[in-house]
Design a protein that fits this description.
The chain is an all-alpha fold and about 375 residues long. It is about 80% helix and about 0% strand. It has one domain: ABC transporter involved in vitamin B12 uptake, BtuC (Orthogonal Bundle). Helix 3 packs parallel to helix 8. The longest helix has about 70 residues. It is a multi-pass membrane protein.
């Protein structure tokens, strides 16, 4: 009897030991499938959110574009706008729509999109929300070269874009190679860029004081950042830049994602870190410089677009950044043209007024997080 009980206990133990791994594997598979399912659900939810945000931003840009064209003094009603767009002449309105408001709206949308892409490239590349062309000297380099071209050589049109691109590129490469010489590349890039911007601002002021008063006045008006001088030719210059640079940005996004993992991880994945970073800097400079050559420096648009897009989508999204930039410039130009009575303010004044408080808030927020860490 004792032997029979012992054999029954042994058989139970053997059965339990045989079924334990199966139960553990089943439990592990259940946990893994649940976690995968939760991750998949979260990813789908995030993707739906991004799609909704992008749809809302597209609608906002379209509404702001139409408002910039039809609202003002005089108001252009939608039936009149349709007649103008179909080629009919509406006395007193056709010229306003086709030669003034239309080009301004197109240039504003294109300029905002280019600046949004440029700012997001620099901010993602340097992993710092302060790293925009406005802050790190690239904008001042492009503006100084453009002012020198306008005042000293009388350059206009596409040649001015080349001058601005060259100035911004020289400054960006100077700051880049200076920052690469030590640790904490992102922080050094910003600090050296701020110093370069201060020197370039002094050079620009010197050029303005040494030239004819009328020419200096035109340059100062341009330096504020205005869409009032927009033409279809200038819109074509910006459109050509974006036709080339936007696809290059789309191709560069995958490289930028790898760089976000850190230099060591990117190198282990076979990426040429220094070459890729330099190429991205050139791309960001080109987007910013082409815009500055056409509109002047629209303050803080490149700085604002990326962080605002991240607040909306909870991730870095270049399409959202471009749409936010376009919406910012169109809204600023509309506000400057219509909300201050008889006074017309350039778009750059409005964007500067919006960007300065945001910069202060960002600095205070970063300081509190640093202290907390």
């Amino acid at each position: 009897m004792f032997q029979r009980a012992s054999s029954r206990s042994a058989s139970r133990a053997a059965t339990a030991s045989a079924t334990a791994p199966a139960d553990a594997n089943a439990t592990r598979e259940a946990v893994l499938s649940a976690s995968v399912g939760a991750d998949g659900t979260a990813t789908q939810r995030a993707s739906r959110r991004v799609r909704r945000v992008l749809a809302g931003l597209i609608a906002a840009v379209i509404v702001l574009f139409i408002a910039r064209v039809v609202l003002g003094d005089p108001v252009v009603y939608l039936d009149q706008l349709w007649l103008i767009l179909t080629g009919e002449t509406v006395p007193g309105l056709s010229f306003i729509v086709t030669e003034h408001r239309g080009p301004a709206a197109v240039v504003g949308a294109l300029a905002g999109a280019a600046l949004g892409l440029s700012g997001t490239i620099f901010q993602t590349l340097l992993r710092n929300p302060l790293a925009s062309p406005d802050v790190i000297g690239v904008g001042y380099g492009a503006a100084t070269a453009a002012v020198a071209g306008m005042l000293a050589l009388g350059i206009t049109g596409p040649a001015l874009s080349l001058f601005a691109f060259a100035g911004g590129l020289v400054v960006a490469l100077f700051v880049y190679f200076m920052a690469e010489s030590g640790k904490n590349t992102g922080g050094r890039f910003i600090l050296i860029g701020i110093g370069a911007a201060a020197m370039l601002q002094a050079v620009m002021n010197y050029l303005l004081t040494r030239t004819d008063v009328r020419a200096a006045g035109d340059a100062l008006h341009w330096l504020v950042g205005s869409l009032s001088s927009s033409t279809w030719d200038r819109a074509a210059v910006l459109a050509a830049c974006l036709v080339v640079l936007a696809p290059l940005t789309a191709l560069a996004v995958s490289k930028l994602r790898i760089l976000e993992l850190g230099d060591d991880a990117a190198t282990s994945l076979g990426l040429n870190v220094r070459g890729t970073r330099a190429a991205l800097v050139v791309l960001g400079v080109a987007l910013s410089a082409c815009t500055i050559a056409v509109t002047g420096p629209l303050a803080f648009v490149a700085f604002l677009a990326g962080p605002l897009a991240r607040l909306l989508t909870h991730r870095t999204n270049f399409v959202a950044s471009a749409l936010v930039g376009a919406a910012l410039v169109l809204a600023a130009d509309f506000a400057g043209a219509n909300l201050f009575g008889d006074v017309t303010l350039p778009a750059g004044v409005i964007t500067g007024a919006l960007g300065a408080p945001f910069l202060l808030w960002l600095l205070v927020r970063s300081n509190k997080q640093g202290m907390g860490g």
